[in-house]
C-alpha cells in the first residue's frame, strides 16, 4: 500500500505496494458550468468500453494548473523509502500500467499499451501479459517486456545476498515473490506462480520503469539476464541504481511512456508534465499540466477562487476548505466528494518501551474519541462518516466487520481502569506511571492542518484518562522518518487500489512496510493463506481472520475512511480517483 487492482467485483481487495496516502458522501451534482455531466458521471472515463480503455479524441487546450497537498519526490515510487500517493498522482499518465482504475474503482485493461492479459494455465497458475507493439518511451526506446521483467525482478526478492539480506528495497513484494518471470519475446511476459495468486491483476500497474535506462547507467547489457544466479556484482549495480537513482527529477533518466512526460521539477513545489511526442495513442487535451503542492487546503481553495489554478485535488479532506468551495458554485466552481480507498489511522511503534506494554495500548485505544474527531474534522466533507472498524476491509466491502467498536469506545474512565488494574498510579501531574515509566508518548505526523487538529483533540481526550500525548509535527515525516520507524505513534493514511494483497507487506512480521515492528503470528498465517487461494470467497475468509488477529494485538487503530475531495473550474469533467488522484484521466480534460 502507499503511504497516503480487479478480481471480480465481489472483492475489494490493496496494491502490491500500498501507498502513504491520500482518500464519502457529500458531493457536487450538476456541473456548475452548465455541462450535462454530473460528478457521479465523471467517475467513468470517456475512453472506457466493455473490453478496456482506449484514449478518445480530445479537444486540445493549453496549460492546466492543478493543486494537491504534498509534493512529488520520486520517479521510482516502488521503493520502500519513496512510496507515497503524491508520486503516483504525478506519474499516472507518465508511467502506464497494464490496467487503469476508474472513479468507481473498476479495474480496466489499458488497451493503449496492452493487447491482453490471460491466465494460460491454472495448475500451476501461469499468467501471460501481451504488450501492444509500437509503444515507446519518450526517448524513443521501446516500452516492452524488458521493463516488465525488471519490475518483477526488483520486487520479487528472488536474488538475495550471501547473508540473506535483500539487494532491492521494494515497498512490497506480494505476488511478485510468488512468481518466476520470463520474456518469451519483446511483447510477451509470462509469469509462473508457485502458488495460486488471485490478485494478479494488481501487478504491473504502477511500477513499470525504463529498463534501458538502468542498463545504460549500470553497464548491464541485458536486464532479463539478471536472476538469482547472476553475478553478485551485477545484481548490486542494478540494485544501487533502482533503489537510489530515480529520486527527484533528472530528465535524461526519467522518460515517459504514457500520454505525458515529466519536463520540469521544482523541489517541494511543483512538477510539470507535457504531452509525450512519442506517444502512439490519441494526444492528451492539455498541452501542459503543472501539479503544485499547496499544503494549506484553504489556500488551495483560495487559489482556485482567484483563478490561479483550475483544479483542487485534496488527498487530505478539510472541512474549512469544503465549506469555502461549496460556496463558490455561483462562480462556476464544481465541488466533488466521494468515498475513497484510503483510511486514516494511528500506528503504534512496538519497540517503544511505553507502547510495548499492552495495557498502555489498550488504554490509549479506549481514550480516543473517534466519532468526536470525525464530527469536528470530516463531517462537513462527508456527513455520514463513521469510525473505521477494520485495517483490511472498507465498510462497504464484502467481509467487513467492526473489530474496534469495543476496543475504542472513547471512554476515559474505562481507560483509567485498564491502567489502574495493571498497577499504574496517577501522579501529581495527572499522568499514570509505573516503575518509573510515565504513560507519555508523542504522535508524529506531517504539517497537514487536519492532522495537527486531530492530535490536539486526542491530547484532550486522553488527558482525561491520565495519558500524556505530545504533538510531533514534521513536514518531512512521511518522506524521511516513517519508513525508518522513527516515531512513537504515527498518524497518516494508507491508500491502496481495490485489492487487499498489498496489506500483507504492512502487517506481516518483517514486511517491507511494517515500520511499526508489529508481529502477530496468527495474522501472518492467515495472510499467507489469503494470497494463495484460488477463490475470492476463501481469500476473504483468511483476510477476515487476519483482521481480527491484528485488532486483538492493539497495534494500529483505524480512525476513518477518508473522503476524496476535489473542485474545479473551466474544465468539462474532473474526478478524483482514490488511487491515481485527479490526473488519472487528465488526458481527456477539455476546457469549456
From TrEMBL:
This is ABC transporter family substrate-binding protein. InterPro entries: Peptide/Ni-bd, SBP_5, SBP_5_dom. CDD domains: PBP2_Lpqw. It comes from the Bacteria. It holds the Pfam family SBP_bac_5. Gene3D superfamilies: Dipeptide-binding Protein, Domain 3, Periplasmic binding protein-like II. Residues 115-500 form the Solute-binding protein family domain. Keywords: Signal. Residues 1-21 form the signal peptide.
